[in-house]
Write a structure and sequence with these properties.
Elements: H1 3-12, H2 18-31, H3 34-41, H4 45-62
Length: 79
């Protein structure tokens, strides 16, 4: 099936494809250097470098105090 045909079918079902692509790109740059991801997936190296920088910025915001865990969850080392 041609990618444009598949994309049209997915959009017709109401499934957003852009957020999934962004998340997949972020996951790749977490695991591999940004230039390697750019070469492998056909992105420009600026795009993958920007994605890696966004992840670094986001992880700084997430490292604050943890919220309480719902009852029934196993305790962690820091709780």
């Amino acid at each position: 099936m041609h990618p444009e045909t598949l994309g049209a079918l997915i959009r017709a079902l109401g499934v957003p494809n852009i957020p999934g692509r962004v998340v997949a790109l972020h996951q790749h740059v977490l695991e591999l250097p940004a230039p390697v991801v750019a070469d492998a997936l056909g992105y420009h190296h600026h795009t993958t470098t920007r994605a890696a920088a966004q992840i670094t910025t986001l992880t700084r915001h997430v490292t604050g105090p943890r919220a309480r865990r719902p009852s029934g969850w196993a305790p962690t080392r820091d709780s």
